[in-house]
Amino acid sequence: MSEAALPGYAAAAWYGLVGPAAIPRPIVMTLSTAALATIAMPEVKDRLFASGVEVRPGDDQEFARLIASEVQKWAKVVKDSGAKVE
To answer: What are the pLDDT digits (tens) for 1-42?
Structure first.
């Protein structure tokens, strides 16, 4: 991507679980624990790896920071491009 037209930018796909902002913290932690345990299972990890997915588990706060940084980065790209909604 940076070689094409956007120096300093790289695009990567990522996956995560999201839900409404008002989910109670104990529920977030239960879902997070279950998801992390699942992707730590050798058969799941192996299948993801075979599909080209690099598993990099993290907590909900890390994921929130990733989303915020991606929104900021790509908002700037869209703004700088001059793209308009029709």
So the answer is: 445 567 777 788 888 999 998 999 999 999 999 999 999 999
DSSP line for 17-75 = ----TT--HHHHHHHHHHHHHHHHSHHHHHHHHHTTPPP----HHHHHHHHHHHHHHHH
The token duo for 64 is: 């929130």
Output the CA–CA distances (angstroms, integers) from residue 81 to 5, 17, 20, 73, 75, in the order listed. 10, 30, 31, 13, 10
How far does CA 11 lie from the centroid of its chain? 11
Task: Enter the pTM of the model.
Answer: 0.73
Q: Which two tokens stand for residue 52?
A: 């080209």
